[in-house]
Amino acid sequence: MQLLLTVGGALAVLLVAAAVLARSVLSVIVVAGWSMAPTLRPGQRVLVLSRRFARLRPGRIVVVSREALDLPADAADQADPSGPRRHRLLVKRLAALPGDPVPESVRAAVPDPAVPGGQVVLIGDNPAFSTDSRLWGAVPAHSVVGVVLDGVKLRSRAVPRRG
């Protein structure tokens, strides 16, 4: 009986340690806007692997820190800067890495023929609803905080269809 309690306690400790480790490696975010439609829709939950454990490749969907991009706060943040951390993360597609050719759609904002060192190019899948490198230009690579895991289906919150 005592052996079962010891094994059970050890298993419980291992499960707690695994849960803590998983929280530092994986996170779930809820998509808030239409910039990645039809690939991702508002209310859809996505599983994000921390940048420390993910390899960046063009074509992958990434999560970036709005603060690291040094973008102006949105109207809700300006009205209540002490309020919830709304829209502090952005979801975009990684279009180009340092040294890659600058995509044609971004050339007006990035005059170099290749993406500068330490920078990346981010583009939303839905140009009509996306603010991205077409406006910002290349952004710091350190602004990427994670990579959305492909093929992971999470339950979404109900959000009315647009259009």
Q: Can you offer a commentary on this structure?
A:
By secondary structure, this protein is of the alpha+beta class. It has one domain: Umud Fragment, subunit A (Ribbon). The chain is built from four helices and seven strands, in the order αβββααββαββ. The radius of gyration is 19 Å and the shape is elongated. The model is unreliable at 75-80 (pLDDT under 50).
> What's the Cα radius of gyration?
19 Å
Tell how many strands the DSSP assignment holds. 7
Strand fraction = 15-25%
Percent of residues in helices comes to 10-25%
Global mean pLDDT: 81
The CATH homologous superfamily is named Umud Fragment, subunit A
Compressed to H and E, one letter per element, the order equals: HEEEHHEEHEE
Q: Topology of this protein?
A:
Layout: H1 2-25, E1 26-30, E2 45-50, E3 61-65, H2 66-69, H3 75-79, E4 89-96, E5 119-123, H4 133-136, E6 139-140, E7 144-148
Antiparallel strand pairs: 1-2, 2-7, 3-4, 3-7, 4-5, 5-6
Provide a quick synopsis of the model.
The chain is α+β, with helices and mostly antiparallel strands.
